[in-house]
Amino acid sequence: MGTRKKQLEDWEVAIIRAMIADGDYTKQQIVAFFSRPERSINQARISEIEANNERYDGIKAASAVEMNKFIADWNQIAFPVAPKIDLGPVHPDTLTKLFPLKPLKAGAPEKLAVAETDTTEGKESFNWGSKEKYSKTFAGFANNKGGYILFGVKDGSFEVVGIPADRMEKFDLRKANQYLTRTYNQAFRIEIGSFGVNGKTIGTIYIHPASDKPVICKVDDGKLKSGDIFYRYPGETRRIQAPELEFLLKMRDRVSGGNLLEFAQKAQSLGMENAAIFDLKTGEVDGKNGSFLIDENLLPHLKFINEGQFDETEGAPSLKLLGELQTLAGDTVTVERKVKGTIAERDIIEDFIKQSDVGNPRAYIEQLCHIQPVYLPIYYYAHLMGISVDGLIDVLSKVDTHYKTRVQKHIERITNAKPASALPARNGLEEIIANICGDEAIQIDDVENAKLYLKAIRLVGSADVSLERLLSILDIVFVRFGSNAKLRSAIRYAVADVDLKWFRELVANNPEEEK
User: Fold this and answer.
1) What percentage of the chain reaches a pLDDT higher than 70?
2) What is the model's pTM?
3) Across-strand partners of 159?
4) d(C-alpha 58, C-alpha 383), whole Å
5) DSSP letters for 212-225
6) Cis peptide bond N-terminal to 243, omega within 30
7) Domain boundaries, position 377
8) Does 400 or 286 have the greater pLDDT score?
9) Torsion angles phi and psi, residue 241, rounded to 5
10) 368 with 299, same domain?
11) How far apart are CA 185 and CA 181, in angstroms?
12) Does 334 score more than 60 pLDDT?
């Protein structure tokens, strides 16, 4: 009969002999010191060592110093504990720990044990009608290290008054994001939550710090001014001061340098033979193993988004459309393009002004039958489809919508080539018309000035000015004042008239219908 393989190393047997001789450890305790997930030791092994089984002949007991050193080292082992799970910034458990109640004094109102800081602000109620003020706070937190707005506490004192239990659930985060991305130069990362305090509900909005600071206001709207940068200081949000702005810019430069290093490291990890450089200006993708070229007409329309993220500017997920590009050798290669899934009025105007080669122009035309305004660009999207005026009317007539009257109005304006409304009088607009038709840079400072330019744009045609010049002026107005309710109709009429004058003829001359 063969000898069984020893489970224990000789040095372990020596330590066990010392522990048995010491007398302070039971066999069960000794087993615990030497059992591991991959090796189970039972008390029989300890008994064998104690009985001087021949398997352990010649192994002497360790010294007391060696035994104590082993036990001391063993006690340093980090044994598993309950895993710590990040519940997120707005989980009720997280919020309860961050914002506990102050110890109550007899007759005193309930207050949270917090104060207004550079990461916390309190509001008694929540009303998105104050979105301009909220957006300043959002931007301030995003430009610093993020922070919480608590709703249902008195300003300053944080006395708990509560809000309706379902108030935060009813908040339309999508609409809020649409407003914020129209107003600022980037999307915000926002989370909504609530927690209970003795039967009262406190709502919370958590604003993550921006990954690309600074967040900058890009429109003139109410008290917001284009170029505003807000920053959260202890207890208040206000326009950023020079030291903090300088710090943000230095950090951005440092991140840019880090990105360059990261790019080089990625290229190295891929292997230089597998890496390539994409020149966004020329469209050439050049690598060691070959090159290909993206048509320059496609380059202005290429946009890159993070996989799995919503394009919050539009409030809709981005979808993929397959297209083609030409290699330097003349071969055809498949390329992915991103198109919008849900289309709003702002998309219809903005993509017209930018002359975006949208991947789904038919969807833009169909969407016109589901929204209130009648006078918006339509011929441009028909031109992208390659259809005639009759084809455009056919597309409209097939749209499944409850707003049949709206469809008829679109068909009527197309049939009669109607402008948006009665044209404004030229009187008083002569100087602005001259500016539009000239080649000097256009400066539009306020809403009233913008309104005059929008009127004047409707009075010029292709014989007076280039389409590119008009679109550049419309872009200035739309970027700065596109969210201003006072200009909404004027913007619609101006873009609709430019669309009519420049693109109806192209659609009328289209020889083919969409297949």
Assistant:
1) 81
2) 0.46
3) 111
4) 95
5) SSPP-B-S-BTTB-
6) no
7) 345-508
8) 400
9) -100, 165
10) no
11) 7
12) no
